[in-house]
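User: structure tokens for this one?
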Amino acid sequence: MRAGAFVYPWDVIGDPAAPERLAALGIQQVTLAAAYHSTRALTPRHPRHRIVTARHSAVLYPPDPARWPPGAPHPHPQDWVDSDDPGGPYAEAARALTEAGLEVHSWVVLAHNSRLGEEFPHTSVRNAYGDRYPWAPCIARPEVRAYAVALAAEAAVRPGTGTRGTELESCGWYGFAHLHAHDKIGGVPLDGAATALMSLCFCDVCEEGYAALGGDPERLRAEVVRALEPVWRGERTAPPDRGSGRAGEWAAVEELLGARTAALVAQWREAAAGRLQHEAVAAVRQQAAPDPFRVLLHADPAPHRAGANAGTRPADVLGHADGVVVPCPGGPDGRGARGDALGPFAAHGGPGVTLAANLTVVSGMGGSPHTLADDAAHAQALGATELRLYHAGLASDQDLAAVTAGLARQP
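Assistant:
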């Protein structure tokens, strides 16, 4: 099965051995970050550094000023990776990887951007309590959708770099869950239904959207607050007999809000997500034309889920994108849950559709590189056509040795 690994430009630039080392893993593709959120990343093999701090969401190439109207949301270039290449760190790394025989696809993060939330506060998701999520732009807002679609086109297609496709992350709703610096939200654990309720947006655009569908925004807000009260007391949002997994989460939401209200919320949010996903894919293809260019979305098969793997309806997303990248737990304990994500996409797959199983191979991040061969075989049996390995730049030498051995066992 074809395999690819995620990599940052700073894993490659300044390390002449990196491209050949990556190729020696047995992968065929590198998914290389072109637009990424803020992070602090380890570089365990780099000859010049061990930590890279990306202070804010940024693009790893020089953005085109003509594409971005003054005063509107726009991407910011980075300044933490030095590169003499006119195309910036992305271009320099992409060329080095291509020369090593690896196919390069861009990795573009869309609706996850804390700097956007600080510069344009009104664009952020606001929860039922009025709290703003600066990391989560509300994709129902026209200015946010315009920004994300333009960013998808610019960041995905980097002329002259040999980039053959893209993978769009957070191409949909972002919400409550966020790996934030010094996070202190774990004191009261939230189940899936509570996370969904805490991710609902009540900005002015969303309130108008609920009203246009016949809902009462203030009543809806009150119902969400009421439904969440047991959570803050340390209780469940719904009885355990509602089931588990994605279907159980939404069944609990329907019980808490009422089926009619839950359907109204779903209609508004799914329409907003679908519009963004369709427009982003179309913009990338238009930018790449006439060359063939593969467009995949990091996706979850449950429309109510928010985050890096944005909720979708599988039949819809596979009707316009070339495929999806689906998060998959690794190791024996995770294999039982994997079909919950891959299965719905596999049911709507077909010839030419890519279903990439995303396996974490960094032991320190909960990954299971030593079971890669078995995990890959299980994912393939459930419909996966490719593998994605997260993340070749963050993994230890031992983890990468296990990856090499695991890929060597692939048929």
